[in-house]
Protein: Molybdenum cofactor cytidylyltransferase
Amino acid sequence: MKFGETPIDEANGAILAHSWRANGINFAKGRMLSPDDVAKLKAAGVASVVAARLDDDDIHEDEAAATVAKALAGEGIEVTAPFTGRCNHFAREAGLAVIDAERIDALNELDESVTVATLPAFTRVTPRQMVATVKIIPYGAPRSAVARAVDVAKAANRPLVSVAPFRAMRVGLVQTQLPGTREKVLDKAVGTTGKRLTALGSSLVGERRCAHDAVAIATALNDLKARGCDLFLVAGASAIVDRHDVVPSGIEQAGGKVTHFGMPVDPGNLLLTGELDGKPVLGLPGCAKSPKYNGFDMVLERLAAGLAVGRAEIVRMGAGGLLAEISTRPQPRGEGDHEEGGPQQAPRVAIILLAAGRSTRMGGPNKLLADAKGMPLVVHAVTAALASQATEVVVVLGHMAAEVKAVIEQAAPAGSKIRFVTNPDFASGLSTSVRTGIGSLGKEIDAAVVQLGDMPGVNAPLLDRLIAAFSPVEGRSICVPTVGGKRGNPVLWDRRFFAEMANLAGDSGAKHLIGEHADLVCEVEMTGEAAVTDIDTPEALATWRARSEA
Structure:
């Protein structure tokens, strides 16, 4: 890659290294300069720019990031579209992050242009939580480096990054009693255990209390077998201090076996693992009665995620096993408890699909119902929205609402993320439909893409690229697609603008807000003409049909 001062006459196709905002020009760094961009800079008196040019053996940062990210990802991972050389991995559902740290290190050693950062192995993750990120450092990476990274990712026939989802377990609990053991203490332990299990999608289906001796423990365990338990827990009134103590002896008398005693985790050293009728059984350390994160949680999480927890896995828990001073571990939380910060989540982005207009420039028929390559025009937009990484699709109806809704429902798969709202004031202009869509969004939505129903070329990758660009922390709160420097649609809006959008009037939408908040605008360059091609007239529809069939 060539980098440095570039004469303006040689800047066409170069990647701008530093933002240029002066003389009416607002170009962000990373922009690939078009002939029109170069003309504007020359007219502004610019003689040269600092820019990068990719060599033939380089891959653009976005393509490189997407290629490596796809190669790394395993089960339970959703990969975002690339933007500014970054691709993120998010968890599809709750579970444990399974990371091959040794191969991640090997990949990061290959070339300084390709980097991967992940959560620590076996971190508990929530749905849509970021698990890993691939970042290409310069504006491009050598093809050889990307190819070697892909080879590392595929070498061991297992993914470098995946999520093992939690599966529901039916759990039985045995608690032993000694003279003086208070029922209140045992009741509290039941509540704490139940909360732990619920947080992992499992449930406590039975509890037995018995004397602290092996025969009583064996009887209680055999009684719980009939409840169809997937996991047995034994909490002794006195801590286990030896493989032949009361609790392990009780497990063996019930027909089970002890596989390992002790673990290099503090608190949690005195945990015992075993097996009963092919199901895991745990002899609990005293700290298991506390809601604070301890060695019991580390083992319980892996069991809930369907991961192996034998002697080999337990003895490797020592690095990172000192938990006593860690205040940030997840704990069962009561109502009203709050966490500051928290893990980075994938943004919850809704698509507001505007399908309420009267099609006045079409000369009569509703253009959204017009045939476009074998399907109604609006169905192209719906198909793209549903295939995108948006969390929900809100279709705003108005003119011929029943007919438009019918063709959409016929095309949308059952149980899809689509819902409909009706704009009674659709005749008053586009802004009323934007207001209706914004007003229907829940408090959990972080941003919204306002998509027009008459832009059939807009596809899911285009929508996903806008979503990937969204980052309020980095000043990208309004994401606008561009084609050769010309701005188009759809536009993504941060939630902070919803209040202003709820007060829009007329037929111009929220375009003026882009100018008022120029410092928060991110231009996202797109290939093709989709982002600047809408269908307003019969001639435009005919032209689009001809071009699509060519």
